Amino acid sequence: MEKISDVTIQPCSSTPYIKPLRITYTQDGVKKIWDAMKVHDSVCVLLYNKSRDCFVFVRQFRPAVYINSVVTEKQADGTETVDSAKYPGTLGLSYECCAGIVDKDCSLVEIAKMEVLEECGYDVPLENIQKITSYKSGTGVSGAMDHLFCAEVTDVMKTGPGGGLKEEGELIDLIEIPLRESRKWLFDEAINKDGELILSVLWFYDHYGK
Ligand SMILES: Nc1nc(=O)c2ncn([C@@H]3O[C@H](COP(=O)(O)OP(=O)(O)O[C@H]4O[C@H](CO)[C@@H](O)[C@H](O)[C@H]4O)[C@@H](O)[C@H]3O)c2[nH]1
Ligand SMILES: [Mg+2]
């Protein structure tokens, strides 16, 4: 099983955000091919606002969520289109913890702090940010590391509007979910959520005995 050799990695095409690759290798004497992706590692921060006993999440339009929620139509020139009258943009809205890619030369917790300020407008002291865990995500396709944190904030720490970096085209809504309503909300399958949000909130219940 673990006898891997002759590994090669070849690019298909590449962007600053993702790099699709074809990997060939020999496993237990059998030649194999696997198509995968290099992506950035990421940090993800569960925000709990103590002043109002609520979680603070972000809501964004995620193109990847959208195109995987609709039926596409193949055009004569080979492109695919989506009938947006039939499939509204709401299908691509996703609720997530504040999160960002690890693309700066500073510590993970410092990146977490920056993302909280950029996306949610809270200036949270580093000592209020605690590590939950790190794990491999998307193991079939990317296998990047996700580093999960939890930050306790108060209304006093809210120094800006959040909403993401306008110069990078980010458009982010802040959504507050009261702790007392969160269990039902967490398992409402009609609401698109990232798995790291569910994991972080379950950790919160366990850690704080809620
Ligand atoms: N991906 C991408 N493709 C583009 O074509 C593309 N074009 C521009 N961009 C820019 O990249 C930046 C990405 O923003 P973040 O650093 O905040 O990262 P997120 O997209 O929020 O992703 C995080 O949160 C997700 C949900 O929890 C997790 O799944 C990820 O692992 C986790 O990293 C933005 O400035 C965006 O304008 C693209 N980004
Ligand atoms: Mg983000």
Automatic annotation (TrEMBL):
Needed co-factor(s): Mg(2+)
UniProt cross-references to InterPro entries, sorted A to Z = NDP_pyrophosphatase, NUDIX_hydrolase-like_dom_sf, NUDIX_hydrolase_dom
Q: Which GO terms describe its biological process?
A: nucleoside phosphate metabolic process; ribose phosphate metabolic process
Taxonomically, the superkingdom here is Eukaryota
Q: What class of enzyme is it?
A: hydrolase
Q: Which CDD domains match?
A: NUDIX_UGPPase_Nudt14 (cd18887)
Function text: Hydrolyzes UDP-glucose to glucose 1-phosphate and UMP and ADP-ribose to ribose 5-phosphate and AMP. The physiological substrate is probably UDP-glucose. Poor activity on other substrates such as ADP-glucose, CDP-glucose, GDP-glucose and GDP-mannose.
The protein's name is: Uridine diphosphate glucose pyrophosphatase NUDT14
